[in-house]
Amino acid sequence: MGNTIDTAICLDCTSLMALHISSIKEKIRYVFDTVPISKRDSARFSVIQFRTPNDQPVTTTMVPPYNIHALEQILALPLCQEEYIDDNRDIGKSCIILSSYMNLQELLGAALREVLNLPWRDTDENDVFLEKLAVLITDGVPCGLFDAFNGNDPWEISNDMRNQGITLIVVGVGGSIMQCDDFYCALAHNTGGFYIPFINADRILSSVIGTIIHDQTTFNQVRTHDLYEEIEKNSSFKYSYMKSRVKCMIHECQTMNDIRRFFYDHRLSIQYDAHS
């Protein structure tokens, strides 16, 4: 029968992302469209949208198998609209509202925490191997990296994801992400995943998901191939420049406070001295 895959899209819908939302949705649709109709019972997608207090609160929309078209309809809704497809279309209807008083950094951690709370299918259900994939799409800096930590700790959550067999891929959007792309790279690697610049996200994600479904390949087998030549294509991202920092974060850090203390306090002091 082949492999199955549950994929959670964790989408930053804050005001700063407004210029990119249309192209993000197009890339997500491209990934969906690469799943053949005959294989769509093998793929299930969910969406978590997180927003700042000036926008709408976090909304989680659950989409069970066989309903990729329904997810496309959800993506077509305006971001300010909290609407759901009618239940009679056989679509699970679920809404989780997180505190609208959180700032962007806190919301990112809270949204990642919701990834753990999704109703993931069981591995080996019906003797079919299941892959669990979470995709974080953001241009934001997580809480605790450049300031005092508050809220859900993304680094601790990545440990929980790894323990639950959930692989995280982070898609970095916009130029501002470059100030912390080494952190996001480490966050993903900590779960067995990787970081992708936005320009290559649709191509890489569709290839990974398609390989898992078509070739009955595990994510770990996909990852063992050297993907970084393709991941880095047409972008300024170079994994080799941050490889040592990524490995040190994974081996030496337990919390966001460790990450900031070991890697970002020093960077901030350099920036401060340069502007003094």
TrEMBL record:
Residues 6-212 form the VWFA domain. InterPro entries: VWF_A, vWFA_dom_sf. It comes from the Eukaryota. This is VWFA domain-containing protein. It comes from Adineta ricciae (Rotifer). The lineage of its organism: Eukaryota, Metazoa, Spiralia, Gnathifera, Rotifera.
